[in-house]
Each structure stands twice: as structure tokens, then as C-alpha cells.
Design a protein that fits this description.
Blueprint (H helix, E strand, L loop, with lengths): L19 H12 L2 E2 L4 E9 L4 E9 L4 E10 L15 E10 L2 H15 L2 E8 L5
Antiparallel strand pairs: 1-2, 2-3, 2-6, 3-4, 4-5
Amino acid sequence: MISPDFPCPNGGCAMPVLDTDQFVLRLIAETLFYDEEYEALGNLSLIDAEEQCERYVASFAPEDGLFVLEEATDWEDYEPGEPDDIGYALAVDSREVGTFESADEIAEMLLQLAREHGLAPSITLLFEEEGD
């Protein structure tokens, strides 16, 4: 709480209301990045916790300059409790749902899909392997 003797600009000290939708959209958009210097790529998956698998995967495609959204169609075999357990099965095949010109556009679609299907986010940072 602000002290009563703290000077308030413009005569008021009302705290701004946090717009959680804009906050979440910004986090999603900033997750989907490509760093050319380090050849690092931010990837966001939407996870179906009940089925324990990736449902959607989104990333930036530097070769096209577009953001790509894919829906998983096949998954690796998943055994909970294995040493490399991440909590869900990774997609091994998918179909493209769409491409987007901006991170903001794909962020809106991802938030909509997460809400519609009750999906949770998972962020992965990928690095290009040497020799590729």
C-alpha cells in the first residue's frame, strides 16, 4: 500500500489494473523467438494433461519468417517415471494448422486453443546442432 504522505502524480494514486489477457499474450509472444547469433529457437507446446501429450506446437520458422502452428497427430511412447520423464509424450508427427505473420497473432490463437481445450503451456528452448 502507498503511504498517505507519498506524493501522487496528477492528484491520484489509483493502482492500474493488470490486464491478465495482455500479460499472458505478451509472455506467449516473447516465448516464440529466434536468436540468429546463438541459433536458439523458442518453442511453445500446449499440453493435454489428461492425455499426457502435446496437442499443439508453435514456433518461429526463420527460413520463412513466419510463425507456425501445428497440431500433433502421433506421439512417442510415453512411460511415466522414466529418467527422462518430462510429464507428457512428445509429438512425432503433426499437421500444420496455420502460419502467422506476427507473434501477437499466433499468441492469440494459442491462448484461444488453451482456453477451449483446457491445455497447459510448456516452453522449450532449442539450439541448432553443430554440423547442421
